[in-house]
# Entry
Amino acid sequence: MDDLTARTRTTTPDRWSAPPLIVIKINFDGALFVNEWESGIGIVARDSAVSCLVWLSRRLPKCLPPELVEAMAAREALSIAQRLHWRRIILEGDCLSLIQKLQSGREDHSASGPITSDIFQLLSLFNSASYSFVRRSGNSVAHSLARFSFGLQEGAGALPPTALAHLLSDSSHSNE
# Structure
């Protein structure tokens, strides 16, 4: 990461907002399915024009602690961004404890510590990378992808119907 990298952004918006030009915003979320003893992750990446660039919905075969699932979603989001050679990103999620761990920059000795370490390594690969907390209402597309995950589904552009309504709502708010 270069000197221009913003490591923190402390805001608590209620709605999703578009990133600046030439920046990709990647929202992530985790979900628990206690009755099935499984978890799910959802990821959506959008640009300043609010276009959906890529999305992922994945069911995990274990019911894991919530912060661990969120950390796994964040790591997967960064892996996708790195694989697609994006250089300037904003990583945004609704797990305040995870965002606070990232903001602290300290070694994490919790169950999510190894994944948090991976996240820091991945963040260092970008020219500009920041992370921010957003309330669940501002993370609805990623949440819907995590909540309705079945196996592994991913794509570019068109979202599944379960997430599309949330994207349309975000798009209308970003133009206000």
